[in-house]
Write the structure tokens for this entry.
Amino acid sequence: MSHASKLSQMGFDLFINQNSFKMITEEQIMACKAEVAVIPDEKTEELNMPCDVYVSESERFESWANYDSDKLATGGVSVERIAQIGVRAFVLREYQSAWIIVRRTGKDAENEWKTFATVAFDLCNEMKHAFKYAFRNEPELLGRVDEIAQGTSDSDMIQDLKTYSLLGQKYEALLTPIGFDLTKLDTASSMSDEGANLLAEANGSKLKGNENKVLRDKAYTYLKEVVDEVRACGKYIFWKDKKRLVGYQSDHWKNQNAKRKQDETEDFVAD
């Protein structure tokens, strides 16, 4: 039989588990997404391994559990429940893809922000330096400059550019005699506006509450729920059958634990 990937799309996506040859329909996908959407934030878990690793492992696990479906049913896990693994894994893959796009866009914004910030901080420092000299005989204005310069964060710098611009425009008569380039007042104002937008974009993909990341984490939580349930049942049923029991353990964590033990052994020998 040919691989399921050859199946054409009929107006909506069909996902086929090549081992069980069961189709996942759009109706199942939409129902799954509806369940994911209502998972409370406080019950949402974050991944403890790479998402693609977890999804691939879950899909392989579904095939393993399907082989044991009759025995798992005696432990309370139906074949329909096992099939939920494939549906939820599909949805998690989709949400992970959406999150990756946002995250990569955010990375571009982060890099652009870093380049912008170098120039912006230089201008901010230059204006502070010039203003302190221009206002050296004006204690009240010097105090205002010191007040502006108090913050050191990115957002402080953005606000400082705008404030320096307004202050400088008001006291151009004091800046002109020291040779300060007055066009930099307008430059500072425009850079403040540009920087505010750019910083928001750079920070947007890192925020814990980013919508795409939240949906990805909720989809993971929903998949993990059924995977953990089926694994627990398998460990109960096959506790004396090592050949089948091995399939109810995470390959990722088995490999991680084996590597950790190897590292500990090497460290011990090295000592």
